[in-house]
Fold this protein.
Amino acid sequence: MRITCLVDNCVQRGSALWGAHGLSFLIETDGGNVLYDVGPELVVLEHNLRAMGLEGAEIAALALSHGHADHTGALAGALALFPDVPVYANPGLLEPRYSVRGGELQGAGMQDESLVEQLGPRLRASREPQEIVPGVRTTGAVCPRPFPPGISQHHRVRRDGELVQDPYDDDMSLVLEVKDGIALVCGCCHAGLRNTLALLRSQEARPLVAIVGGTHLMNASEAEIEQLVEALRAEGELRLEGAPRLYLNHCTGERALGVLQQAFGEQVVACPAGTVIDLG
């Protein structure tokens, strides 16, 4: 089980990769390769695949963490690049999403109406966990949500004719069966990392070895981050080997990354584009 970060806001120093505000991971397994999110632009995804010598990688399935354009902007091109592969997501993926910035309303989701037709029967949307390939599954819908979600105040959806705060109903993460336990791979984790961990614990008893991806802690309060630290310490008690390794990027935020590094030291690292994680 190997995870490669294909697209992120940052790139590994000295690499020929392109950075872009967004995220994409290639998850390679013996049962098939999964592309999780596709980033904001196909040109970036294709360039980075070539730069890492992965342009010939066979893809068994696509999975989408949620409908925001920084994770799905390259979808139309990716569907053409990888014809006939299924696409796994939560329902609500195609709901129009908006961002309010400077008093102006802007599209923030998959605004291309032709995507509905392109996806067609390839879209496998379910609120329940779905196996994508052996050893890789979705979390399904993250609910209930007793802890704070990872929100941005400018995100909106239209409900009953009114613009309201996006509830991120479509947010989902992936669960990987790896050596010595499981790994959690997040896109933005708008549902909230503690909520996602609570859901994971309701589904799984195996130790959590790693958390990879964007965790949307940039706007989290100090109290929320400290409570997350305690939740991760509790996960470490299940492993008897310390907290899970954290490979964090995209929307995590430097402040949260710093607090987590102070708490867990070398267990916490940044995960820019070009990072390769071998989880066995």
In short: The mean pLDDT is 95. DSSP finds seven helices and 18 strands in the chain. The domain at 2-278 is CATH 3.60.15.10 (Metallo-beta-lactamase; Chain A). The radius of gyration is 18 Å.
